[in-house]
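Example 3.2
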Amino acid sequence: MLDGQKFTFASGILAPQADSAVTVRFGDNVLLFTTVMEKYPKPEFDFLPLTIDYRESFSAAGKIGGAAYRRREAKPSDLCILNARLTDRAIRPLFPKGMINPIVLSVTPLSLDHTQDLGVISLIGASLSIMMAGIPFKGPVGAVRIGRIDGQFIINPTLEQIANWEMNLICAGYKGTINMIELDAKQVPDTIVNEAFVLAQAKIDEMCDIQAQYLTQFSITPREVVFNKPTSTTIDFVKSLFTEEFKSQLIGNTKVSFNDHYKIFEKHCLEQAKSHIADDTNDNFTESKIKMAVFDVIKYVIRDRTIHEGLRVDNRSMTDIRPLFTQVDTAPRVHGSGLFRRGDTQVLSTVTLWSPGDVLLLDSMEENRIEQRYFHHYNFPPFSTGEAQAIRWLSRRETGHGKLAEKAIEHVLPNKLDFPYTIRVVSDCLASGGSTSMGATCGSTLSLLAAGVPLIAPVSGVAMGLMTEQDESWHITNYKILTDLMGTEDFIGDMDFKVAGTREGITAIQLDTKVGGLTMEIIHNTIAQAHTGRNEILEVMLETIPTHRAQLSEFAPKMAVIKIKPDKVKMVIGKGGE
């Protein structure tokens, strides 16, 4: 029981051939979680191949669903993808570093009652399933949703309650920490958001205790796993090659030039280690271990400089924002466009206004023909990072980043009566240097103002980073919070904490971490530092376009609203209106 809410866990009946299987029930929502780990991974893996396989199940919702000519589930809905990403972000940092065994965690909905969002259940079930499989994991992971309705916090509110919320927050983490945050809010002040985090931490800890108590009923055999990480011999070899000349070439660079010098050094190390790599009996030297050692050596140097000298890889201070450039009307015939550039990141957002009947129709196992009047689509083509690849299909990352920017803006849109248009924003990431989702948020604001959409307030966003020192128990002993996280710092840093909002308050937050979890002190300090950063960005945006245009574009459709007495309707529609 958590705050009078009953969660039921069950194992031992379903899916007996999986490494573990557990069902989690909350109300009449029942989800099956199974985990299978590959015992014999490919030795050249240099990452953890973790897959969250979240299935769509119309039958669990009592629906047939699917296309009329097929009538079965196809690719997962956006909501399934978002829940899979939510789960991945909370559990991935808690596996041992260097572990390379592929893990597939499958989520199969068995019953849905449409009273609760499935995010919290997904996180709890994933935690239990991994723990029961005996895989090394710093769990259990607790999760909770906090709603704020009529000035009061509500634990795990129902979907009906959420419909009237001021703030909707979901947090996860292991005991004493938070490592995943997803929040959307209606311009809520920082102080109230911080109160919600404190409450969330208490409920996360309670859920961790509930899971730990359940797991005592089982005799869980720890699994042997395979590691691929550089040895001290490999690290020392790379250190010997990392001269002051190479170091000086890396420092003071933007992401693009940093990556170029990084690749040159990596290639140099591989060339010098060629004879060692050719010796199959020498386990200290493989191509993947050399590459990982290069990463570890450079990562240490950059982080040490940031934490102890207060200088970042591009020589900024902790609170400096990279050069900004904003523009509107970049594309001439669209209904509105905004270009936002911050450092190496460049995003072009375009607005299309159309009739009320052209809403996005959401029809999935959790959604029953919901009409969405405003929607945001985010594209991240390979050329944005200089990769020679064709554009194929929409990635899960694009779905997640697009939804974050959508949530950041949707609560400052005018109501339907005042502005009845359906609104679509497309953000194309043209160059990536870190935090393209916040670039898309800023670009969306610019484009909407240029299109003449009367926003309640303009929104900006900033990504915050973190560099830490930790002891053997993962306790953070020293840290620096970084405003305006650049791609290189995301690559070698410990968190990506995105905060969007207006001058009045926060509208969206998303947190990913690479450390096990964050303390409340770090979270509160990040919120405060982000407040200054996003307002600084907003000031630059408003110099370009201070408010929405008074007139819609000449290329946008025009709309007239007329009011008709009910007894006169037949004179307008039907045979009488011919």
